[in-house]
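ok so i was messing around last nite and threw this chain in just to see what happens. nothing serious, just curious
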Amino acid sequence: MRQIIAMGGGGFSMEPENFLLDQYILSQAKKEYPKICFVPTASGDQDNYVERFYKAFNTVKCKPSHLSLFEPNFIDLEEYILEQDIIYVGGGNTRNMLLLWKEWGLDKVLRRAYESGIILSGLSAGSICWFEQGLTDPLNAPLLKLDCLGFLKGSNCPHYDGENKRRPSYHNLISTGEMLEGYAIDDGVALHFINDSLFKTVSSRPKAKAYFVNNKEGEIIETDMKTIYLGNL
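result:
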């Protein structure tokens, strides 16, 4: 079974007092102590980001580790990844992350991990990377389309409610045909895909939502998706 859990924003780095989304990801491994590996490439393997990951995940039942490409902490990259139960990709600069992954061959390793049943997850850069295209925000530059790994069809826009330029930029790129139709995700929302199809949409915030956005005869259609608030479970 292939699984991807893509968060628009949230998790330990954005909601340190709210572990609902991270706990949901851990629970999908169906193991008492799942091995979860944090991949902070998009942040430049920022020490503080890695420390916050361990601080959060050392408090729950799991075996946390992280992957560094800037200061490699592994002998065999493929072996290191394929021994995990969950890969959790952090936020940051998506373009730089993907370039570095390709240089190391990590993009191909992650494809093998996906096909072998290892759960792929992440937020922001770690969300859009799994789709054909993503809406990214380079520093001091307009929002733009980025071609990504293509494990999932369509496009993805994170932080839909958290950054006011997101919605108009996403609508414009889809309406002009520059970007594929796809999923817009509020902070605190995760899309759970199983075998390449959307299985469930969950949230850590009561009013957070996800939308499917497409262009129908020149008009942008934004369809609300049924979102399950994890705090009610």
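not much to say yet. Helices lie at 20-27, 47-57, 77-82, 94-104, 106-115, 125-128, 166-175.
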